[in-house]
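ok new one. same drill as before - structure tokens go in, u give me an amino acid for every spot. 228 of them this time. try not to just spam alanines like last time pls lmao
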């Protein structure tokens, strides 16, 4: 279970605004990668225990997401869609999303905690935390936001493209997803730079149009089309 030990050490040094950063969706064959940044208050209720989103059920993630939206000093989620992922590669896409999530927080953190072993380019003090989403409450909160936001995008895509079953597998390379991909070919949201090892990439019906710009973002409690 994540806790505030790392944050408290920073707070004692006078760094009151600490942002946690994490991502969801590096590995799927389809859909966006989403990064989130969250600044939690110092009086976060202990009863609202935060942890790596992968360890939590969907119902618990949704409940905590609502609490983060209500209580966080600031939060932001940024999504980069498949055409941009294909253009810059998933590693760079993830780091760009992380940087943009921090830049668009609306407040300037005094320190940034990033899950993993690589840092995005930031004009702020930052440190990478391996398995940070299980160690830092702020990073855990970001992991929950990124996961819920991405899952809602994929559920919306599932309604738009029901034949590919995105609402169930969320774009991950399950056997069912690979079977559908082999039969139907890629949808407009499949990542053309991804393929299943040992399996040929099917012919594309119609590539998705590339969009310029800095990704799509979600912040505060404002609604977004997929139901934020």
């Amino acid at each position: 279970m994540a806790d505030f030990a790392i944050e408290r050490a920073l707070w004692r040094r006078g760094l009151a605004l600490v942002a946690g950063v994490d991502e969801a969706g590096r590995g799927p064959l389809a859909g966006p990668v989403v990064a989130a940044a969250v600044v939690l208050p110092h009086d976060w209720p202990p009863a609202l225990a935060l942890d790596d989103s992968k360890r939590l059920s969907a119902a618990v993630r949704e409940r905590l997401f609502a609490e983060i939206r209500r209580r966080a000093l600031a939060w932001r989620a940024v999504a980069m869609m498949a055409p941009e992922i294909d253009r810059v590669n998933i590693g760079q896409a993830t780091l760009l999303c992380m940087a943009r999530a921090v830049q668009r927080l609306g407040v300037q953190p005094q320190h940034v905690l990033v899950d993993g072993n690589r840092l995005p380019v930031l004009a702020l003090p930052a440190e990478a935390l391996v398995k940070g989403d299980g160690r830092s409450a702020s990073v855990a909160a970001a992991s929950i936001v990124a996961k819920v936001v991405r899952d809602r995008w994929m559920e919306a895509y599932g309604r738009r493209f029901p034949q590919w079953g995105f609402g169930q597998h969320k774009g991950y390379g399950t056997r069912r997803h690979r079977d559908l991909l082999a039969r139907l070919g890629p949808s407009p949201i499949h990542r053309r730079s991804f393929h299943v090892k040992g399996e040929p990439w099917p012919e594309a019906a119609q590539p998705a149009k590339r969009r310029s710009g800095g990704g799509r973002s979600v912040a505060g409690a404002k609604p977004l089309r997929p139901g934020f």
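Residues 5-160 form a domain with the Nucleotidyltransferase; domain 5 fold (CATH 3.30.420.10). and btw Strands lie at 18-24, 33-39, 74-80, 111-115, 126-129, 216-219.
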